Amino acid sequence: MESKQLVCMLYCGDGELGNRLERVLAGVAVQRVRSREALLAPPAIVCATVYGTTTCSDDEVEWLRSAFRPLSPPCVVVADLSVDCLRRLYPLRSCRLKVVWTAEAEDRLGEVLGEFARVSWGPMWRLGLGLVSEPSLRPFVKETIRRACGLRNDPAGTPFVPEKSVGKLAREVGVATSTLRLCWREEVPLRCSLKEFLSWTVTLWGTRARKLEEWTPLAKRLGLQRRSLERNFLRTAGCTLAEAAEDSERVVGRFNEWVDSVWEPHSANGSGAYDRVPTQAPREEMP
C-alpha cells in the first residue's frame, strides 16, 4: 500500500488501543482526534476514518448506525472479536463500513484503508458508496449507482467516464427506462431525479479530470459539445467552466449543499416502498 497517499482520521476512546493503532498506521498520514464527533465533519482530503473500540457497546453501535451523513468517508471499525461484537457489528457491515478485529489489525487495517484510498473518486464516490449500502435497494438500482459513480471494478482497466443517459443506464442494467426511473424515485433516499443525479456525476468528474486535461477533449470523451458541458455546469454548480477550473472547491461546496437539500432518509420516505414497486428481472448482458 502506498500509505503516504492516504489521509485518515482515527478515534479511539481507549488510550492503549489508540496508541497501538497509531503504531500500525505509522506510515499513513493520520490525524488522531479526541472526540468521535470530529469524525462527522472531516476535511475533504480524508479518504477514510478509523473507529477503535474495546467495548463495542450498544451505544457505540447505534452512534455508528445513525451518525454518518451521505457524504461521510467510509469507516473502519477496529474491535475485539467476541460473540457480542459479532452480533452487534455484523448487521452494520457494508461497502462503506468495514470491520477489522483487533488481533488482525497489524495485517489487515492498512490493507482495508488502502483499498478505500485506491478507488476514491471524491464526494460523488462517497455518496454512491453510501447509497449502495442501503439494504432496501433492488440489485439493479445498486448496479445503476455503481455504474454512475464509478464504483465498479473494470478488469480491463478502462478509465471511468460517467454515463449521462438514463436510457443507456437502464439498458446496461437490464430494465426498462420507466422501471428504473420509478424504482429510483421510490427507493433511493434522494429527492431528485436520476437525470439530475447523472448531471452531477458529469460535473464532479469533469472538475476532477480538468486538472489533467482541457475542457474540449473532456467534453468529447463524454460525447458532448463544450457548450453543452458548460450548460451542465451552470445548471448544477451554477458556474462556468472557467470558474470551475479556477475554483474546484466551489463546485464541491455546491454539491455538498445540493446533497443536504435532497437527502431524505428512508424513515422520511415511508415504509414498504420496496414492495410497491413493480418487479422486472434484469436481462443478461451480451458478451
What does this 3D model show about the protein?
The longest helix has 16 residues. This protein is of the alpha/beta class and 287 residues long. Strands 2-1-3-4-5 form a five-stranded parallel sheet, covered by helices on one side. It is globular and about 55 Å long. Helix 6 packs across helix 7, helix 7 crosses helix 8 and helix 9 packs antiparallel against helix 13. The chain contains 15 helices and five strands. The C terminus is likely disordered. Strand 3, helix 2 and strand 4 form a beta-alpha-beta unit.
Q: How are the elements arranged and paired?
A:
Layout: E1 7-12, H1 15-24, E2 29-33, E3 48-52, H2 58-67, E4 75-79, H3 83-89, E5 97-101, H4 105-119, H5 123-132, H6 139-149, H7 166-173, H8 177-187, H9 194-209, H10 215-222, H11 226-236, H12 241-246, H13 248-262, H14 266-269, H15 273-276
Summarize the structure.
The chain has helices spanning 15-24, 58-67, 83-89, 105-119, 123-132, 139-149, 166-173, 177-187, 194-209, 215-222, 226-236, 241-246, 248-262, 266-269, 273-276; strands spanning 7-12, 29-33, 48-52, 75-79, 97-101. With 287 residues, it is an alpha/beta fold.
Relative strand content: 5-15%
Mean pLDDT: 85
With strands numbered from the N-terminus, the spatial order across the biggest sheet is: 2-1-3-4-5
Number of strands: 5
SS summary, helix count: 15
The portion of residues assigned to helices is 40-55%
Give the distance, in angstroms, between the N- and C-terminal Cα atoms: 34 Å
- Given helix and strand content, the structural type is alpha/beta
Write down the overall geometry.
Answer: globular
User: If you compute it from the alpha carbons, what radius of gyration comes out, rounded to the nearest whole angstrom?
Assistant: 20 Å
Low-confidence stretches: 267-287
Q: What is the string of SSEs from the N terminus onward?
A: EHEEHEHEHHHHHHHHHHHH
Outline the biggest β-sheet: 5 strands, parallel
